[in-house]
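Re: the 862-residue chain
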Amino acid sequence: MRLPAGPRRTGAGLGLMADYFISYTSSDRDWAQWIGKELEALAHTPHIHEWEIKGGEDIYAWMEARHDAADHVLCVVSDEYLKAPYSTLERDAALWQAAKNRTAFVLFVVVKPCRLPTLIDHIRRCELFGVPEDAARTRFREFMSAREAPAMAAFPGKVFAVSNIPIRVPTHFMGRDHELAAIAAALKTPTPPSPASGGGSGWGAVATLHGMRGVGKTTLAASYAQAHRGDYRATWWIRAQTEAGMRADLVALGVRLGWVAADDKEQPALAAVMERLRHEGEGILLIFDNATDANALKPYLPPGGGCQVLVTSNAQAWRGVATPVEIRVWPKTVGAEYLVVRTGRADEREAAEALSEALGGLPLAHEQAAAYCERLEKSLGDYRKRFEGAPARLLDDDRDAPAEYHDRLTVAKTFGLAIEEAAKLHPAVEPLIVHAALLAPEPIPLFLFEQGRDKLGEPLAEALADDGLDEVISALRAFALIDRETIVDERDPAIRTDTIRLHRLVRQVAAARRVGDARELAERALMEAMAAVYPADARDDPKAWPPARRLDGHALAMVGGDAAPPAGAETRASGLLNGLATYRHCALAAYAQARPLYERALAINEKTLGPEHPDTALSLNNLALLLQDEGDLAGARARHERALAIREKTLGPEHPDTAESLNNLALLLQAQGELAAARPLFERALAIYQKVRGHEHPSTATILNNLALLLQAQGDLAGARPLYERALAIYQKALGPEHPLTAAGLNNLAFLMEAQDDRAGARPLYERALAIDEKALGPDHPGTASDLSRLALLLQRQGDLASARPLFERALAIREKVLGPEHPQTVMSLDNLAGLLHDLGDLAPARPLYERTLALREKTLG
């Protein structure tokens, strides 16, 4: 069968009535028929073989006749279509005609995600998949509409300045050259293909400026648009905070460019604008200002890669959509330059730097400060003094808010609104950021809120349960109110702590939300939480030191200074003071810093709890241990004796705390040479620990170790050795092979073996102990210095003087630095090094060391 060919309308345009041969495969039948009905609605004539061929007729003859007579061949494209034999024949024939002499003869309408062959991928097409029917209809009719030349074409060399930028870039815009370059680089890099596109083209180049409020993201975006206005034929500002704003502003762009009429309904007009941006977006920059997050923006990002898109947002999670460009606060040099130029006070640069630092580098705060100084004719130094006295008032002064940008919001209102918006995402947002703002201005470990939440009161404690804390942190980060960072421990890189940090002005604004009794209640709750979380015993357990390091500044700020603790929080305050002092005493060997903290804890306990309370005894015990390490044996003895008396009276003669005091007093007596008086105390402490804590407890091992030291000092080497060996075995089993107490056990056993003339057996024990303490205590700790001295003495006795010398020198350097030049252990190191130099025959440097040793001993002993 051959159908007569109708009159061919050579060059029939898409906007004229035309005959369309619909090329499709059976799996896309429904799409072909839908497209046919749409063509009829546009007054075209579609030819679909299932509509025209009756049973028994020749489909190949029909295809040849209609294909040859049609004005256009419309291919309904899918993966199935691209593989089918008949459709391939139809498509190739149409492409041949289009290539020879029939321009625009073939049209591609893609109905399923697929990858077009390279030879046809360049041809403009209409994609109908993945959108509702109304949007698909709009796309198709836009695709089929006639293209008319504009009434007047712009000369290509002339800048086509379509723009609706709503803000003026400040006169004194500065300090953002690096960020402007980063934006330009980001807008040259298209985003990866979107999964929703089936592997086809994704969005074009998208860059997101993110950072805290008031840092100048919007102003920076406007500055970029102004600086690059000659690079774009249209620069369009879109209010991205709401979906309604994005829709309205995109349609307004379409009206301005003549793509849609002003009275078109919004939904079809928006679909038409998005389709035109897909295919004709080259030379257009879209600026989505104040976008809430990536998911809200995705439906309004034009696909296809034509447009460039610049986004400003407080949220930080953009990597799946855009190239993020973080906008940070100004360094104080830039902030000072702004203040100087903005106020015209070139002679106040030093004051400007100090003020910029006080303002935390936040550009909005700098503008408010400059406006205040200009309005009242005050110096930058005067403003800083007033700011430090009443930051909340100055941050919220409407008279100094920027009039031309940032919606005339002050710093206080900016952050206050952000807190309120974040609080809509989770009820714990506002109380948590207020509590965080009352802490010290440094990273806050999240474990403080995880482990101490029960002390923060309801409803906050319950709201932080399970994954509540993570949700709160996410909400605060979404509004750029906090930064989250992971801090690697200074001693052990394997230990990492999640923390949050508040900008100093966010702290000021958040803290101001609690005043009077409400603030005092929050501060007391924080002290309760800190006391509950702070490591209970940082004396002998290095595992307690990393969390103590992270809490140190916050705990010290709570109890620092001479102010009395809040009423009802005295016990918690003394506990924190003891913890802070113990960390400095044992972990840092910072004795001078530890002493006033111990003394304050003792004074609080004596006043609040009384002179005979167990907590008072604990403070006495801790202070006595420090005094003993400082070499003040007399002062330490009096406090040990008093602590023991309190514990025996209040806790009983067989309490573990009583045993602790017995042990500590015995050590003191031994140091004073009173060996006979020390021994029964050690034996009594050992009996208590064995009874109460068991024979395999580390406390029992400590007494065994100390008693062995005493026996050795009394010359009973045979009696001492099994005690040392038993103590070491307990330490290794209970605490592990790299614990400082294990190192102490190794040192003591080695010392005994050396006394028994087994120097070869002692050396590896000394070396192992040194390695443990260098790792656990650190290379500059007095304990490490003691290990160095012991090993050096052994090497000296073995005749290895060259190896001993650097160990003696290092031990002396540590003790001089940490303990001071007149400490007994420093004097011992001086004497050791002088003796080694004498043995080496190096008499010239040995003499001043001997003289210094002699002078210090004469001063101490008389």
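The mean pLDDT is 88.
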